[in-house]
Write a structure and sequence with these properties.
Layout (H helix, E strand, L loop, with lengths): L3 E4 L5 H12 L3 E6 L6 H5 L3 E4 L5 H15 L4 E4 L14 H29 L2 E6 L2 H5 L5 H21 L4 E8 L5 H4 L3 H9 L9 H11 L11 E4 L8
Parallel strand pairs: 1-2, 1-4, 2-3, 4-5, 5-6, 6-7
Helix pairs in contact: 1-9, 3-4, 4-6
The structure holds NADP nicotinamide-adenine-dinucleotide phosphate (NAP).
Length: 239
Amino acid sequence: MSRSVLVTGGNRGIGLAIARVFVEAGDKVAITYRSGEPPQELISLGVLAVRCDITDSEQVEQAYKEIEDKHGAVEVLVANAGITKDTLLMRMSEEDFASVVDTNLTGTFRVVKRANRGMLRAKKGRVVLISSVVGLLGAAGQANYAASKAALVGFARSLARELGSRNITFNVVAPGFVDTDMTKVLTDEQRAVIMQQVPLGRYAQPEEIASVVSFLASDNAAYITGAVIPVDGGLGMGH
Ligand SMILES: NC(=O)c1ccc[n+]([C@@H]2O[C@H](COP(=O)([O-])OP(=O)(O)OC[C@H]3O[C@@H](n4cnc5c(N)ncnc54)[C@H](OP(=O)(O)O)[C@@H]3O)[C@@H](O)[C@H]2O)c1
């Protein structure tokens, strides 16, 4: 089985690890990247890399056209691209808030809506949204990010109800702290405080998120929809 898979933000971090597992499974994988050059490693594995800023509907449309042309309609979508702009509420500008929501929530809406066209026609599809434990727990200095990630749960669950009868599943993965560029900005002191709250006492590796995404896209997960799967070392237990 070789499906047409799209991973947004698949050029680094968690998205890159997700792209790799689908390639290893023999799927036709496309990634989007926003800046720089896509990793040579993926290109040599035959991955289609499409430049696309998910805050721009026209770029999303063009990316889908190219993917459909080369791989056929997207059957598995992993909406992974996301940003942080952390600061305390008193210092948070409207732009800090709006740009995080525009990428993490509205950007996800743009790519999911466009993928749905082909999934409806095919009468099947798998959509996995990458949220965060922070969307469930909250975090001081991350009101914009937490709000955008919490919103993905309501978004996915509404679509799970709306499109379940069309054999399209929508699930959310909520990672805890993962070793990527996004968390490299934290100080040693901040890391130590976080680790005290993680029962497993360590950060996740991106591959540990990727394996859960791969499961949700597999036949073994055919009866799972509207679920929020924590991959957080126990940090968010009970939420
Ligand atoms: N790392 C963690 O601890 C952690 C925890 C929970 C959830 N997450 C979530 O997991 C996802 C991936 O995180 P990560 O740690 O791998 O982050 P990362 O290393 O910072 O990578 C973010 C990815 O998103 C892409 N991106 C950002 N804005 C975009 C836009 N407007 N259009 C298209 N692509 C855009 C980036 O592209 P460029 O390379 O072009 O910038 C990059 O590929 C994010 O949604 C994040 O919120 C991360």
